[in-house]
Amino acid sequence: MLPEPMLAASAPDPVLLPGWAGEPKWDGYRALVGRWSGGRVLIRSRAGGDLTGAFPEIVAAAADLPDDIALDGELVVWENDQLAFERLQQRRHRRAGAAAQAAAQWPAHFVAFDLLRLGTDRTGQPYQERRRALEKLFTSQQLQPPWTLCPSTTDPQQAAAWLQWSSVGMEGLVFKRLDQSYVPGWRGWRKYRSRHSTEALIGAVTGTLAAPATAFLGRFDATGRLQYTGRTTVLNAAARQALADELQPGRPGHPWTGWTFSAGWGSRQELHVRLVEPVIVAEVAVDVALDASGRWRHPVRLLRVRTDLAPSEIPLFGQEH
Which residue range or ranges hold the ATP-dependent DNA ligase family profile domain (predicted)? Predict the structure, then answer.
């Protein structure tokens, strides 16, 4: 079986420190790929879901990999010379003929940035040893697209230059200590985002579940209670459709049952909302204006629905903007 992926905590700035390596942060789906004897292939999502049937081109390309191997990396789709996260979302649930059609229309690449197994378990080795083994794998197997080797550097100037890739959809940088082993589920890496965005859970919407107009956002506090953090601006058509495909009606005992929501900061006008199961993660663009309770004072802009993230992976209430 494939392990849980190692995770990253937020970095305050994009400076690459001595003793660390920097990699570009890709705008795609985190995934682990494994191949065993007999040609069995598994593609595991960050949250543990099985993506094997959704990406038949990656499964077919796994024939170029040796047996008993596990890679960590990012599934990406390029469209018009830009990373197209939305195409990955559209492909996520497709299987059989529909998946094959999507693979032909929006082919995925797997950007490998770590080698977790090759004959033996490599997770206990330092990053720099795993990296050398990963580079040797690409050379010895002469791997070609859809396999892509993620760049890595210890040069601060090179890492800073990668921040200029934001025009094609690159998100920022990931930092990894050279002597660090791979610890599943641990936030031992660091990530820096080029844009000021963050995540929250969707706990309610205005409009209907089939056509949501705005979304009400929340985060769990340290005690596990879902706290209200703010509301989005009016959703555009793409965001509305993406939410409509994922929203589920709130079940009895929803943490916001009986709550009222105002039309705006300082307003007494109440809005009619529909509670939804707080399991959908939204990435939002935010500013730094907070009220006394730590909520976003101004409506935030929903950038996209993050079906690749689990509720447990978003920041806690009050932890960051």
Answer: 101-225
